[in-house]
């Protein structure tokens, strides 16, 4: 999981959120490691982690592929009703803030004056299906 300030992302669709590269690589690291090994870019976990630390271009390509199939959950505390936690399709963005389309803020009771949100990755297939 991760946490960051939210900023407006007017070019995003309603079902998308902008996830900073630093947060995304941490959240999806195990999936990226598996992708590096499956594509024979790395022969073991140590080499894969080294490639991630060096931020090699192949890492970002695999991260993009991994993120296409994995929804993330965004939560703004306090979660007082079911719209306080929602699933989104993550999109890589520059910077350190989570981007949201302005029209989804009402459900979270959020605005862009410094509000923070937590991001979670559902791991099991059942959790991913429920998030979708």
TrEMBL record:
Enzyme class per UniProt: transferase
One Gene Ontology CC term in the entry: DNA-directed RNA polymerase complex
Report the catalytic activity.
RNA(n) + a ribonucleoside 5'-triphosphate = RNA(n+1) + diphosphate
Pfam families assigned:
RNA_pol_Rpb1_2
* EC nos: 2.7.7.6
- Key word Flavoprotein present in the record? no
- What Gene Ontology terms describe what this protein does at the molecular function level? DNA binding; DNA-directed RNA polymerase activity
Q: What keywords were assigned to this record?
A: Chloroplast, DNA-directed RNA polymerase, Nucleotidyltransferase, Plastid, Transcription, Transferase
**Superkingdom, according to UniProt?**
Eukaryota
GO biological process terms, semicolon-separated: DNA-templated transcription
InterPro entries, sorted: DNA-dir_RpoC_beta_prime, RNA_pol_asu, RNA_pol_N
PANTHER family, per database record: DNA-DIRECTED RNA POLYMERASE, DNA-DIRECTED RNA POLYMERASE SUBUNIT BETA
Instruction: Outline what the protein does.
Output: DNA-dependent RNA polymerase catalyzes the transcription of DNA into RNA using the four ribonucleoside triphosphates as substrates.
Q: What is this protein called?
A: DNA-directed RNA polymerase
Q: Which organism is it from?
A: Coelogyne sp. SBB-0557
Question: Gene symbol?
Answer: rpoC1
């Amino acid at each position: 999981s991760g946490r960051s300030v939210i900023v407006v992302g007017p070019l995003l669709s309603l079902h998308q959120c902008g996830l900073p590269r630093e947060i995304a690589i941490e959240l999806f690291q195990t999936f990226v490691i598996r992708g590096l090994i499956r594509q024979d870019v790395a022969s073991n976990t140590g080499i894969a982690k080294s490639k991630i630390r060096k931020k090699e271009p192949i890492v970002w390509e695999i991260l993009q592929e991994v993120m296409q199939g994995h929804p993330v959950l965004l939560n703004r505390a306090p979660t007082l009703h079911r719209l306080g936690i929602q699933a989104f399709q993550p999109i890589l963005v520059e910077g350190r803030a989570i981007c949201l389309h302005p029209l989804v803020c009402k459900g979270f009771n959020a605005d862009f004056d410094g509000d923070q949100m937590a991001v979670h990755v559902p791991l099991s297939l059942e959790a991913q299906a429920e998030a979708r």
